[in-house]
């Protein structure tokens, strides 16, 4: 099947200027009525153990995809994946890693928790481009020797 661009090129090759003019007029009409809508963003519900159990129930009893489950329950698809794959959110423990991360994120959004200061790129007056050998050794990792070939063509 020919694309619109190929159709336009064929019209141009055959000198069908009137058809090209009609095509252009249709394009302009389409552009005038076209509306660009922002992406649909779903504001997710707070994940709770009850909601996690409901996700697992839907996943086990229906043939719904993770995306369909997320739309139905009004949660992020990533959260559905976490519940199904890793069993997150099933315990009501407030010290669980996912609950702690959620609470930190909420506090940061509300401005209650001060933002972490950024690490200075040039500590101690060093420029980022001119690192000394001591800075490389600071990590405590021994420097690797270049790998040598195990076989050469002449060895065979």
Describe the structure.
With 156 residues, the protein is mainly α. Helices cover 49% and strands 0% of the residues. The chain is built from 7 helices and no strands. The protein has helices spanning 4-13, 17-33, 49-61, 66-73, 77-86, 97-110, 133-137.
Q: Terminal Cα separation, in Å?
A: 55 Å
Mean pLDDT: 77
Question: SSE string, helix = H, strand = E?
Answer: HHHHHHH
DSSP summary, beta strand count = 0
How many helical stretches? 7
**Which overall shape is indicated by the principal axes computed on the Cα atoms?**
extended
Low-confidence stretches are none
Structural class: mainly alpha
Note the beta-strand portion: under 5%
Radius of gyration: 30 Å
Short description:
This is RNA polymerase subunit sigma-70. The chain is an all-alpha fold.
Strand and helix layout:
Elements: H1 4-13, H2 17-33, H3 49-61, H4 66-73, H5 77-86, H6 97-110, H7 133-137
List keywords for this structure.
156 residues, mainly alpha, 7 helices, 49% helix, 0% strand
